[in-house]
Amino acid sequence: PLTPSAMPEPPPEGPAADSLRAAALRGSLIHKLFERLPSVPPADRRQQALDWLRAQGATNADALAAEVLAVMEDPSHAALFDPDALAEAPVAGLVGESVVAGVVDRLLVEPARVLVVDFKTGLRVPRNAEEAPVAHRRQMAAYAEVLKRAFPGRVVETARLYTAAPKFVLLDEKDMAGLLPLE
Questions:
Q1: What b/e string do you get for 146-182 counting C-beta neighbours within 10 Å, with b at 16 or more?
Q2: pLDDT 10s digits, 73-88
Q3: pTM score, whole prediction
C-alpha cells in the first residue's frame, strides 16, 4: 500500500541527525497533545499539558504547551477539537490500482462535507498553499481521493494546520492537481 506520510530512511549520524531527531520529538509531543487535550476541560488544559510534557522530559514544556493551546483556543479551529472530530483517523482505500493507507491527524465528517486536516509542526510555515511542499500536497491529494470515494456526494476539503504560526492552509483542487500518478 501507498502510505502518503511515509517517512524517508533514517537520517545519518551527526549534528544534522541530532537536529532532525529533536524536530521529530517536538512534532511527536505536539501531536500527542492534540490527541490528549480535547477531552480535558479548557480550564485544565494548560496544567495537564505542562504536567504531561514534563513527565516526558520536555525541556521546553511552556513553549510547546503555549503553541498547542494557541491552536486549540483559536475559534477558527474549534470544530477540529470538538468531540465529533476524529483524531488519528485511519484512512484507506483504492485510488486507481493503488491501495492508499494512512492516518490523518483530524477528520471532521459533517452532513455536507468532510474536512481532513494534517498538522505540521515544523517552524517553516508557507505563506500559501502553492508554497507548501509538493510532498505535503501529494499526501493530501491521496487522502482526498480516498475520502471522495468513501463519502460520495459530500464536499471533501483538505488542509494543513501549521502549528508554529498557527496558520490554517486550505488546499483546493488546483493545489493538488496532477500530483497523483496513481489513477
A1: bbbeeeeeeebbbbbbbbbebeebebeeebbeeebeb
A2: 989 888 899 888 999 9
A3: 0.79
